[in-house]
Write a structure and sequence with these properties.
There is one protein chain. By secondary structure, the protein is an alpha+beta fold. It has a single domain, classed as Trna Endonuclease, Chain: A, domain 1 (3-Layer(aba) Sandwich). The protein is about 35% helix and about 30% strand. It is built from 3 helices and 5 strands, in the order H-H-E-E-E-H-E-E. A 5-stranded mixed β-sheet has the order 1-2-3-4-5, sandwiched between helices. Helix 1 (about 1-20) packs antiparallel against helix 2 (about 30-50).
């Protein structure tokens, strides 16, 4: 209970600092701001649910793209793609992780694993969809094992 309180307190402080610094940064597109807000919220949501986040926005010099969050859940290393939306009216957020995006995430995950001293760890790919709908509390939907290391043919 105390840990969840501390995480909530830390989240409030980080969000307050972000709001204060917003006036000092160049304006960005609304969808980029929404995505950044979602990744911050995902970090704290995962912490409240027992994950140990070890990387945010991880990039490799050898491949384009980034891994939104990398976290341990028990003995499993999770590569978590965060998809944030302000409405559910169009399509579920997790559908944005298409075949090309999955290929990029797999490539980046392989690069990440190569840097670990022990590469023989259980891994999985998760998608965390977050909805920031006006007038409502954020809604989180976690899809563990959202896709595998190989693509199945249909």
């Amino acid at each position: 209970m105390l840990l969840k309180f501390r995480i909530s307190l830390m989240e409030s402080a980080v969000n307050a600092l972000h709001r204060v610094s917003a006036g000092r940064r160049p304006a960005r597109a609304a969808h980029l701001e929404t995505g950044e807000r979602g990744e911050r919220a995902a970090f704290f949501w995962l912490r409240r649910h027992g994950y140990t986040v070890v990387a945010r926005g991880w990039r490799s010099s050898r491949a384009p793209g980034d891994l939104d969050l990398i976290a341990w859940q028990g003995n499993t290393l999770c590569f978590i793609e965060v998809k944030t939306r302000t409405t559910r009216a169009v399509a579920p957020a997790q559908l944005a992780v298409d075949r090309d995006k999955r290929r990029v995430l797999r490539r980046l995950a392989r690069h990440y694993l190569r840097q670990l001293p022990n590469r023989d760890v259980a891994t999985r790919f998760d998608i965390l969809s977050i909805y920031f709908e006006a007038g409502k509390e954020p809604d989180y939907e976690l899809f563990p094992h959202a896709f595998l290391w190989t693509e199945t043919r249909r």
